[in-house]
Amino acid sequence: MALPGKNAIWRVLVTGGAGFIGSRLVRRIAAEWPNAEVTVLDDFRSGHFKNLEGFRGDLVTADLARVDLGSYFKPKQFDSIFHLASITDTRVCDQHQMCNDNIESFRNLLEYAQPNRVPITYASSAATYGISDKPNHETDPRKPANVYGFSKVQLENLADKFVSTPDNAGWKVNAVRYFNVYGPHEAHKGAMASMVYQLYLQMKQGQRPRVFKSGEHKRDFVYVDDAVECTLLAMDSGKSGIFNTGSGEARSFNDLISELNAAMGTRLEPEYIDNPYTFFQPFTQADLSRSITELGYTPQFNLAKGVKSYVEWLKG
């Protein structure tokens, strides 16, 4: 579906709505669609109640991989579904847990939405690209280096399987491949919060920021409000597809520390440490040509603007 008018009654389900990006999406919908009827489904394993402060919709606390959605919701209850629920800790090595939770949750949701072809926009990840040294395009081979990325590849395969059958012709199921998202409402993630937040905490205590040698690993750091914007644009798209969701720039951890110093008024030098992770991606950068052309997505935050905005929010 196309996004409705601002005063329309829009019935929306957001899975993982108490999490980082999910809660920011919920806030955006509430701010721009005052008549939206938002339902959040979250089991709070990787979400936090404080992220839903002021939320006035319906909250269902359930494990999406196991819940009977038909017992909670009517067949035609929603106009749109945003699926952001997931194990997001990339360090989880239990393959059964990761695959069962992420894949079976999505299968359950697809089976619920399929009879009425409720459009779904769901979270994939840049982890599907694996180890690379060049900008990532949606048509590149998927070579995940960990089971988290592998599980996201399976979500994309599952979506393709559902929408490619003749009975589901025209059903829109879109993936947004998130790169390194940072910004407000991620603190509850602890050790899995963004490096922007981790380094901020160290520097706030007057400590030298610690990064892997030699600080020249590069990431596509994308501010959460840009990620939410691309997610909404994907729902507004006229057809199914997979869309990179990043800033379009690869910046080093040394660059990030420089921007944090500028925003915080500090002059702390990095401390370089050994990297213990074999699956650590040395480089990520979103090729945004498809997202720009097909969705009209234009990131509003470069690293300097995003870090400045985030630091101001954190201080507040």
Summarize the structure.
The chain is α/β, with parallel strands linked by helices and 316 residues long. It has helices at 20-32, 69-72, 95-113, 147-163, 195-204, 224-236, 253-264, 289-295, 303-315; strands at 11-15, 37-41, 58-60, 80-83, 120-125, 173-178, 180-182, 210-212, 218-219, 221-223, 242-245, 251-252, 271-273. It has a 7-stranded parallel sheet, with helices on both faces. The chain has a two-stranded parallel sheet with strand order 7-10.
Describe the structure.
The chain is an alpha/beta fold and 316 residues long. The chain folds into two domains: 11-180 and 223-248 and 286-299, NAD(P)-binding Rossmann-like Domain (Rossmann fold); 182-218 and 250-283 and 306-315, UDP-galactose 4-epimerase, domain 1 (Alpha-Beta Complex), CATH 3.90.25. Helix content is 34%, strand content 16%. The chain has helices at 20-32, 69-72, 95-113, 147-163, 195-204, 224-236, 253-264, 289-295, 303-315; strands at 11-15, 37-41, 58-60, 80-83, 120-125, 173-178, 180-182, 210-212, 218-219, 221-223, 242-245, 251-252, 271-273. A seven-stranded parallel β-sheet has the order 3-2-1-4-5-6-11, with helices on both faces. A two-stranded parallel sheet has the order 7-10. Helix 1 crosses helix 6 and helix 3 (95-113) packs parallel to helix 4. It is globular, with a radius of gyration of 19 Å. The model has no long low-confidence stretch (mean pLDDT 94).
